[in-house]
Design goal:
By secondary structure, this protein is of the alpha+beta class. The protein has 35 helices and 37 strands. The strands form seven sheets. The chain has an eleven-stranded mixed sheet with strand order 17-37-36-35-18-29-34-33-30-31-32, with helices on both faces. The longest helix has 38 residues.
Amino acid sequence: MDSAALDSRTQCVINPDTSAELICYGYHRSYWKSILAALSIIFSGGFMLLIFYWRPDWKLLCTHSLSVISKSTKVLLRTTDETNQVRLIYFLHLNPKLFFLVSNDAEIPLAHYGTDTASHNDVIYFKHHSLKYIWNNSVMTFKELGGLDKQATLAQLHQDSTTGLKHDDKDDRQNLYGQNLITVKVPPYHHLLMFEILNPFYVFQLFAVVFWMFDEYYIYAIAIFIMSFISAITSLIEVIHKLFQVKHKKSIHSKSQLFQISATNDQGLIILQIVEFYLNPCIPNRSPPFTGTCIVNESMLTGESVPVTKTPLPSGENELQHLYDTDSHKRHTLFCGTEVLQTRFYRGEMVKAVVVRTGYHTAKGKLVHSILYPKPVNMQLLRDAYKFIAVLFLIAMCGFIYTVVIQTISGETAAEIALNAIDLITISVPPALPLAMTIGIIYAQLRLKKQKIHCISPQRINVSGQIDVVAFDKTGTMTEDGLDLSHIVPSYVKSDPTLYNEPRQPEDTTEHPGVPTFHPCMVTCHTLTTIDGRILGDPLDLKMFEATKWQLESQYDQIQMTYFRPPMVASDMSVASPNGVSGGDDIGVVRQFPFASVLQRASVITRAYRAKPKEMKVYLKGAPEMVASLCLPSTVPADFHEVLKSYTQQGFRMIGMACKDLSLTWLKAQKIERSAVECDLKFLGLVALQNKLKPQSKGALLKLEKAEIRTVMVTGDNLLTALSVAHESGMIRPHEDVLLASTSDASENSPATLQWNYADNTGKSRACIVTICIMTSQLVPNWHLAVSGHDFAIIQNYFPEWKEILSVKGTVFARMSPDQKTELMENLQSVDHHVCMCGDGANDCGALKRAHAGVSLSEHEASVAAPFTSHTDLGIECVPTLIREGRAALVTSFGMFKFMALYSLIQFCTITLLYNDLTNLSDVMYLYIDLIIIDLVAVTMSRNHACKYLHKKHPPYSLLSVEMLVSLMVHIILQLGAQLLVFFMIRRQCWYTTLTPAQDVFNIPAQNTTMNVTDCPQLSNVIDQSNVDDPHEVMTYDTSALFYFSCFLYMSASVAFSRGFPYRTPIYKNYLFIGSLLFLVAFTLFLIFGAP
């Protein structure tokens, strides 16, 4: 490694131009700065420790100096997004010989790197969010340590699979990559409790409680302490519960046998070791199989509990030089966390696989990582609350200065001045504010629970009230889980005016002249398997197979893997099949080529039992256009495209089928390349399937549309199928136009291209020229954009100017990978949308976590990532319900915030006016206001239920919005004017008397301290205070008048801020609140007129 190059760098960019971009700064300790920081902590009484805890970057600046990376001991990581988060991390040093396991050249296959004990400089690295970042000299930055599968060819992986690792290589990889662990650490409870308590809100509450105890305001101090403690414990329980949920989901270990290494558990797996899998383990790593076949359950990745067949990596001569890629070879890769249901190999041997990734670099590791370390959501409400509290604090400081000046002039003692001034601060910034704001959230959470919507992140309830865009997954969310087989459309091979036969039911097995045999393709071309006596597999394959009424036999010999027997065998058992059961018409599968989304097809090589040894047949199915392109033109009907178009426009999902004869031996069938099999086929026809909407989907989408909340579909399914469901559900109306993206990737000779075409069902010409100007100025809400995952990636990488347009106008996003779904959430948020994501699978976890409000319709992995989990019976109807409750909670929080702010300002004005006469409210008065009026009102005014209907008017999004500020400022001015009016009016009354300051009163003879003599005839009503011993107990007209008047101000403010329609039920339906107000009014009037 070039030390000189490293020495010149004091900062670098990690993961540039990605959502995970970080700026890295190197620092080393400065001893004189550290000494000054220690002195500041001592002289501040430890307060600077809190500041350093809240702002670790300030601590670094106060104790360290910027330095070149090679000489640094710590690194400061700063995100480049709007959250601007910072992290402090220690540098570590790597054994020099292990550096040769890390590629510095993207062109060199990582699989070739072995050990080298030559002397070399230490390699620096650091760990961030459980991932290791190592200095890469070729790009002069830190690179994330990944697996050894990058730039490795299939030939290299096949070669490495024969011998495994030497013991020295195994130890080196163990030291570099660590154990195969996905660690979910649950910190000690006292650490988590301290983390909660050190929140700025709780720190201020603790300060206020201690101050009140010194000021002998015991009852209210104890009440606030108890409520704060309960709140902290509740938050602690929620955090622990969530961590244990994640830990439980990921802590499924299994036993695997290591080739050439003694048996161990999955935590000891090393990169490029060979693994033999037993039946039913949970895969602990990412491994491509090299021998045999595995049937696995990938519900952790896809959200669908569908068995998937994994076949060995291709070994054809032309395929061996291809680079191994997880996406293109996913049908040959066993992903971590997926469950092996069945293994198939000949002569009873075990299935072998090579480990290429472990830990957090695996599929399950990335899922857990996204849950443990999500990209923070922009919590505007919390930021606004901090800003508003800062304003209240500034007002408090003005009152603090005023109090100090007035009471210093009046000759008060320093202790009295300090107590009164600090008291004014605790009044201006009410410590009970966080508790009051969470009351509405607690009520909303309880109401959601009654409606079978569970919440693990209560703060997201308020955010859900701001939702203006909802993204839905399709399969299992908007539609039923499976597809229903409607009918088949066989193709004629004879010349006939009608080139397609009339549609017929799949169980109709009668032969028609000129119609090729259709059922063998439906029977054999799939990856179904029998597990515990049940036929399992892809729902589409299962529907097609069950419609044929054939039987599947799972007894395997050394030649064929699976046998299929027609239904007539039950009555004709004259011929014995290979497994000992009669059935001369049995068909056996010789080799499978599983479905690949890139190829858009699947195929099988089969051999009938009565056929000659070399007499085999190929059956293929897939996307109709792809199947037709692989067939002989003479076998494809002339009206193929018209018929296909008519069915797709009706919302059917179409599958094309084809076949051809093949003559080769079993051994050659195992080695023949896929491309040689899937060509020159004979077209058989089409199969029509229908994905039915859930009964609640249309109604829920209609409610969102009426509320002017935009809806988006994000699915991994086909684009045309997604468009059909969008039309059927009402997401896209019949009169609305849809533009489809048509893109091509960049190459050496040509740049990337983007073109927009009208969808076929619009009735307009296919091609259209659309510019950004047209998009932004002429497109009205009845235009929609639809893209596939490939188009989405091209636009993200090559057409950034279209990202905002796509985020605003995009409605259907098909063939989206889990990472692309998360990226879409970020794009929508970048244009100031508040996004809700509703999905049901583990492949939605990243998007569910990244969205402002994620709703899972599953109780499995997705429920851990999503803040909200709904019962599946509700369907997407839970989304309007959540938004209604979110709006109610949001408006309640805004109302409570304004009420608490106005309450503190009312009391601030009251005390400031009383300080002018060196008097104050008594403890009993404070207790009546704080504990009786405020707490009773705060608890009951938040009980308004959500409005039954979603209104098109959206609630304010910010505490600092014009509407909120104007409302609050008007009330502040009114209450201040009212208190000033009372203060001056009472002084003009004939019976008003000015008592001397308390410290002077008790220096004068008692008979002269009761009152000043006036000529008012009502002097007989004045209370004699000549026997009062405590100067703080002396009552004044100002104190009594402002106290009683302020009580009514608090009650009127609670009514003014109890907003009902269109977000909550009217105030008169909150019976507890109305009853509380009547009680408080009656009791206050009693204190004024009836108390002794």
